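DNA mismatch repair protein Msh2
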Amino acid sequence: MESIDRSLLKVLQKKASGTVAIFERNEFYSCYEDDAFLIANEIFLSEVGLRRVQIGLTELTYHNLNNGQYTRVVRDVILMLHYRLEVYVACDNEWILKAKGSLGCLGDFEDVIGDSVELSELSTVMALSYIMDYGSNENHLSIAFCNLRDMRMTIAEFADTEHFSNLEKCIVSMVPRECIILPSSSKSFEDSSHIGKRMNSLETALKRADITFTEFNDLNSIDTKIVEKLLNIKYKGMHISEQQRKCLGALALHLHIVDDMQMYEDHFQLLDYKSAGYMYLDMAAVKALELFSLSYDEDTAIGQSGTLFDLVNKCRTHQGQRLLRDWMRRPLFDLRRINERLDVVEALCEMGACRDVLYEDLLRRVPDVASISRKLLHKKATLQHCYRLYQLVRLLKIFEEVINEVHSSCDSFAPSVNDLCLEPIRLALLQFDKFAALIETTVDVTYFEENGIYRIRPSIDDRLLETSTSDDECKSPPTVTLFDTVTPPDLTGVDDELEPLAAFHSSLLISCDIIASSVALTRCCNSGN
């Protein structure tokens, strides 16, 4: 057996059951055994592409993929089946890991899958720990949510009924796709039947919310100290209870955050789930109002645009669509804040020209900030991403001018416009002022406009300037230098020397004609005889 075959079998043996491994070959891709059956049955809905191969003493089932099928498999494995994905490439007779990603962290597959509003929601996973009080039929819940895509953690603690109605409202608001249940504890003695009844109620609530759930029993493997390492320095002082720390530690293990601490350390935000000022909906209300899905069968054309979100959504950017979905899940209950938003809406309605500039021009030019920020956090951003962020900073100055015009033209609504729109823009400009200055002095914009390629200004470093000068000299047209340096030859008298050659050429042609005529005449005579 060759070493590359032994390496393949080793990868398949060590692969986790929740991971799909794809092996990149020269012009196609291959997957083996359980992964091959999964792709054939769940994605292509056919086992026609399955083949058998003998590697040493082991017989394996495999499925080959072309480039188009590979792209489809990447999207469906992560978005539809919610599996982790790893791609291996052969190097020195060994299969080495080339790319990896999951629903919570797309990683190397972000360019293949792209971005969408729903993708951000599918990236949230929750962990739950509850303490049962038999005397009062009450549950004390400690919950943690983790969204790897937005690098955000959310914690919550509250008392709930035996039917977990408050938990259901929390789930509607946070939209997790999966729940990890930590072992429960009790404040008093309970028999096993009562514990089982509470567990059934919890499972019923999770099923009603359409959430997959698994039990996390290995509490000894949880390292609560890792939570402090993951949080950004601005959030390290927030109070986190011991149960919430266990939930966050379990999420770090489940999402394989601990396997790549260098990428995630000091990057997470920590938010506290708050219910004050918001109206929370349960699953029954969300379905009855048809916020995001229809509750009855319709044909495809109507079903795609019949939800309340589809009818209300006129947002230009993905960020706006995500914000609208959050507002619809958690409508404001505070009258003062509702009136504040309505003031801004009325001010924009009265200033039709400014509204058109915002909607038809400026918002169209806003890049996907979430995608750029993820690349910056993961240290995968290129010079192009940095320059796109700089363009957004410059665009904010135009936003400021337009909003300032709205602010100065509506006296009664000016305070609301200032607090909700104008001040946040000015604060962002102040925070990105040094970044904009750095890009202006570093990026060679003129070179990009001429060649379409981003590069650093050569003038910022002597060695870089020397390299750029040498490169420009190599790229200069050689013909220009040739004609500038070579002296034209003196052709005087050449015509006189060529006259004998021309005469010889003419006599040669005449001689050839005579010979050809003689040969033809001889052949005619011979044929006559």
